[in-house]
Amino acid sequence: QVQLVESGGGLVQAGGSLRLSCAASGSGFSIDAMDWYRQAPGKQRELVASITSSGTTNYADSARGRFTISRDNADNTLYLQMNSLKPEDTAVYYCSSVVRLNVGRSTYRYWGQGTQVTVSS
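The structure corresponding to this sequence follows.
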């Protein structure tokens, strides 16, 4: 019912920037929160940043001041602007959204396929 498609990952030097995008498609739903998670090899998946439907943002301590999460509610697109990237930011980044179905009003968390971000030193 809901598909999240990510783009924007790649290889960047330390100190550089990347902008990740995530587009939600489908029908029969509305989106509450949208989030970015990341998972490095051998590590647990962690929340990087989140944004509510009203635009309230939250960041992990490791991301605050360097990353900016935003969303375009008109087309259900999520963005993560990553500046001053560090090698420790290297991970697979996942778009995730809390989706509310129009029928039944149940909520579910959906995940994108992930996009690799590699920061070289």
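Residues 8 and 20 are 4 Å apart (CA to CA).
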